[in-house]
């Protein structure tokens, strides 16, 4: 690689490059390292600004409606998303059933009775 050589070797490279292509001086510009670092940082800023831009898609539903969906699902544990969605439509809220399902409170049932005590299969002992 040319850049890792001695300064006289680098100078010799540019002299030979000029001999082969005399018009290289019109396009070749030597810059300072600070300028290159500044350009790199500016490019990185532009990239991350683009990367973190807001994406399209559906707008989020109001916070009050989310709280209402959570409250209804807590107060009526046997109701699923279709029933809550229907009730919200009766109340005049325009919301999709998938959104209702997304904002419902997730319930965890009690652990399975199989895992409540160690079995002989898992411990390796016969009972």
> How widely separated are the two ends?
74 Å
Main sheet properties: none
Mean pLDDT: 83
Helix content: 55-70%
Contiguous runs where pLDDT drops below 50 for at least 5 residues: none
Structure report:
The protein is an all-alpha fold. Among the domains are: 7-47, no CATH class; 63-103, no CATH class. It has helices at residues 7-20, 24-27, 33-51, 63-75, 81-91, 97-103, 120-123. The radius of gyration is 34 Å and the shape is elongated. It starts with 6 loop residues before the first helix and ends with a helix.
Structure, briefly:
The protein is mainly alpha-helical and 127 residues long.
Write the layout of secondary structure elements.
Layout (H helix, E strand, L loop, with lengths): L6 H14 L3 H4 L5 H19 L11 H13 L5 H11 L5 H7 L16 H4 L4
Helix pairs in contact: 5-6
């Amino acid at each position: 690689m040319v850049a890792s050589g001695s300064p006289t070797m680098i100078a010799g490279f540019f002299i030979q490059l000029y001999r082969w292509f005399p018009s290289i001086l019109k396009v070749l510009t030597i810059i300072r390292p600070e300028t290159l670092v500044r350009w790199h940082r500016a490019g990185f800023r532009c990239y991350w600004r683009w990367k973190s831009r807001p994406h399209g898609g559906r707008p989020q539903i109001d916070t009050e409606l989310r709280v209402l969906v959570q409250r209804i699902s807590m107060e009526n544990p046997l109701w699923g998303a279709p029933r809550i969605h229907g009730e919200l439509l009766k109340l005049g809220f325009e919301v999709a059933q998938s959104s209702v399902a997304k904002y419902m409170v997730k319930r965890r049932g009690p652990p399975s009775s199989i895992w409540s005590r160690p079995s002989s299969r898992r411990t390796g002992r016969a009972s």
